[in-house]
Amino acid sequence: MLHKEHRQNRTERLRGYIIYLIFTARPRPLELSQLMRLLDSRNYPTSQHKLAEELSFLRDAGLLTVNTTGSGNADGAIDWIERYADADRDAEIGDRLRAKLTPAGINFHEGAKQVEGIARVE
Questions:
Q1: Distance separating alpha carbons of residues 84 and 96, to the nearest angstrom
Q2: pLDDT digit string (tens) for 50-77?
Q3: Residue 88 in 3-state DSSP?
Q4: Rg of the chain over CA atoms, in angstroms?
Q5: Element (H, E) at 53
Q6: Which of 3, 19, 28, 56 is the most buried (most CB within 10 A)?
Q7: Which residues pair with 30 in a beta bridge?
């Protein structure tokens, strides 16, 4: 039971760090390759597949969008996240993927909104 709680806490903090790091990059979106390096520097190393899972969770919660460099919208974000998860390297998908917070994501980080399954990190 303790292991399951530890894993859940780590996942919630990882999600919080993702929100925090994207927030600090504002107003620019944060490239996913850079996000992975920043997470690693904070002792939260993660695989592309795990990062894609958490980005999908956060996107479904309405906290962020994912698009390609040069794309102004998040159309097809699910396909890009799936392709990113399955790629051996970030460069294999052809375009750089980047994440940006929605107004709900900004509100979460600033404490104006609570979301189950995410720990606020500052």
A1: 10
A2: 998 999 999 999 999 988 775 555 555 5
A3: coil
A4: 14
A5: helix 48-60
A6: 19
A7: 99
